[in-house]
Design brief:
Helix 23 packs across helix 25. It contains 29 helices and 2 strands. The protein is elongated, with a radius of gyration of 27 Å. With about 575 residues, the protein is an all-alpha fold. The longest helix is centred in the N-terminal third of the chain and has 36 residues. It has 2 domains: about 250 residues, Hypothetical protein af1432 (Orthogonal Bundle), CATH 1.10.3210; about 190 residues, Orthogonal Bundle (Hypothetical protein af1432). A two-stranded antiparallel sheet has the order 1-2. Bound molecules: fe (ii) ion (FE2) (2 copies). One fe (ii) ion binds next to helix 16 and helix 23.
Length: about 575
């Protein structure tokens, strides 16, 4: 018997998830504005190096379940399910497994199979978006385990666009039907294969990926891929099938509705013994997860031994999550990994320490996970987006934050990842955060994302050449949208020549550096030492800068520096405000 998976409480002997303080990343960016100086030497520069170039402390270990559960949250977004639906499904599956008295390896397989059940949902998503005009989740999922006729009827309802009617609707069905018939089996095969590959990369038990080949099988052998029937279907899959339908039907009705549906499907889609087990314990199995967050309970529910990832295995798993996101459009293949590599190299060029470089690179791997919440058709549009489509796109970094914020490990990446479309002058999205609120690492990721995206094809344009992308990026910096130092580092990391920028108020590069250092509280003498120039020259730069900016005090110059992105948040001795949820 399992014994340790009980709704509403953690097993006393279960180790707590890794204790992470969830603290915000420290900034480490006093080098901004200094890095171009000829000789940032001397005591001040050393002090700067020691104090400010420390990176975000990168955790060395994560529970596999934490990462896979985050992927499961992303699949909720991709499927159009309520957030945490996949976790609730897993809890139902684990309660079923416990009642069935399965052994511990089977329980572990059930756990990971359930969390990964929809990991293939972004496979060929653009094709599915073309074939089906309406939502498969709305029309197919309620009858996915029903009779053949019900399944076919669900598919037909999903073919025409939601708003079509009468003759148009019929014509659309006729037009789309052949492609659906042709693509169905290859698509489902591919979705299973992708789930298997991702399952392996995120570190699930070695026995789990092969099981995912049976995700779509039915007890009666009439599954769409027809790979097995009855007892030939591995037990974890038979449990997950009942749990999946029970969880979905619970969204549509009360427990009596769930009982009716599951009983009707017993012996057809479902193993009768498992269906009966669900019906017998329906209240205990379904009701406990109606309240509160399922995150902690899901983590507490992992059968022992608790699995962990460290070192390269973490990067491999995060890269798998990035690939899962990129699968939503063929235009995005390799985007997340490319951005991560570029951002990591650029962060190193900005003198961020190795822990910080690791954090930026990992944030890059998962920065676009929120893309899966946007309909695949939107990413394929060659035309101008509608207001609704634009809003979907605008919110994808917010969804990134939602996916990352539950896990203590991943939440340390969230402030950088979710800010990848923010701009220094506040013109970005989704928060519209402005200069002082954006850390250097966030600025580096934003610049890396912009550069890499420019070099990739999009439905409405060809990819830009590396040099053209570097020019465009420089223009963004000159316009005050991207951080000049981050852009320089990204362009250099990409192997292109560093651009020159126009600084605000006509400041020269050196004057901008001086203002930046003044804003951090350095006296003129310290500025001179940091930049390796004489005090007289430093004072000359200060006076020139004040005149150009139109101020006469350090306070006003500091305000100007913050407003125009000459200092990043965290560089100034001000308290960080609580991050909005
Ligand atoms: Fe993005
Ligand atoms: Fe991106």
């Amino acid at each position: 018997m399992l014994g340790q998976c009980t709704a509403g409480r953690k097993a006393p002997s279960d180790p707590e998830p890794e204790s992470k303080d969830g603290s915000q990343p420290r900034d480490h960016s006093l080098w901004r504005g200094v890095r171009h100086s000829a000789a940032p030497a001397g005591e001040v520069a050393e002090a700067i190096d020691a104090e400010y170039c420390r990176g975000v402390s990168a955790e060395s270990e994560i529970r596999t379940a934490e990462l896979v559960a985050a992927l499961c949250l992303a699949t909720d977004l991709g499927m159009g399910f309520p957030f945490e639906h996949g976790l609730h499904t897993t809890l139902i599956g684990m309660r079923l497994a416990e009642r069935l008295g399965v052994d511990r390896p089977t329980a572990s397989e059930t756990y990971y199979v359930s969390l990964l059940a929809h990991a293939g949902c972004t496979t060929d998503a653009h094709v599915t978006g073309e074939v089906f005009g309406a939502s498969l989740t709305t029309h197919l999922n309620p009858v996915m385990y029903g009779s053949r006729r019900q399944v076919l009827s669900g598919l037909m309802r999903a073919l025409p666009a939601e708003d079509s009617s009468g003759p148009t609707r019929a014509a659309e069905v006729v037009r789309r039907l052949p492609r659906m018939a042709r693509d169905k089996r290859p698509h489902l095969t591919a979705a299973c294969e992708v789930a298997q590959m991702l399952g392996e990369r995120v570190g699930s038990p070695a026995s789990v990926p092969p099981l995912l080949a049976y995700l779509l099988e039915r007890w009666d052998g009439h599954g769409p891929l027809g790979r097995a029937k009855g007892d030939e279907i591995p037990l974890p899959l038979r449990i997950v099938a009942v749990a999946t339908d029970a969880a979905f039907q619970r969204l549509l009705g009360d427990t009596a509705h769930v009982v009716r549906v599951v009983q009707r499907r017993s012996g057809h889609a479902f193993d009768p013994e498992i269906a009966a087990c669900l019906v017998d314990g329906i209240d205990e199995i379904l009701e406990p997860d109606r309240q509160g967050s399922a995150w902690e309970e899901t983590l507490a529910c992992e059968p022992k031994p608790v699995r962990r990832l460290d070192g390269d295995a973490i990067d491999r798993a995060l890269a798998a999550i990035g690939d899962f996101a990129d699968l939503i459009s063929p235009y995005l293949s390799g985007h997340s990994a490319g951005v991560a590599d570029l951002a990591g190299a650029a962060a190193r060029g900005c003198h961020v320490d190795e822990a910080g470089v690791t954090t930026v690179r990992r944030a890059g791997l998962v920065h676009d996970i929120g893309r899966v919440a946007v309909h695949p058709r939107v990413w394929q549009q060659p035309r101008r987006l509608t207001a609704d489509e634009s809003e979907q796109v605008r919110l994808h970094p917010y969804h990134t934050e939602r996916v990352l914020s539950r896990s203590p490990f991943l939440s340390a990446l969230a402030p950088i990842a979710e800010a990848h479309h923010e701009r220094v002058n506040g013109s970005g999205y989704h928060r519209g955060a402005a200069g002082p609120q954006l850390t250097l690492t966030a600025r580096v990721l934003a610049a890396a994302d912009a550069y890499h995206a420019m070099t990739e094809p999009r439905p409405h344009r060809e990819p830009l050449s590396a040099s053209r992308a570097a020019d465009e990026l420089a223009r963004e910096a000159s316009a005050g949208r991207l951080d000049a130092d981050a852009v320089t580092a990204v362009v250099e990391a990409a192997g292109e020549q560093a651009p020159r920028f126009a600084r605000p108020a006509g400041l020269t590069e050196r004057e901008a550096q001086v203002v930046s250092l003044l804003a951090r509280g350095l006296q003129t003498k310290q500025v001179a030492r940091a930049l390796g120039i004489s005090v007289k020259t430093a004072d000359h730069h200060v006076q020139n800068a004040y005149r150009k900016i139109g101020v006469s005090t350090r306070a006003a110059a500091t305000l100007f520096a913050m407003e125009h992105g000459l200092v990043a948040w965290g560089e100034l001795p001000i308290a960080r405000t609580t991050r909005r949820s």
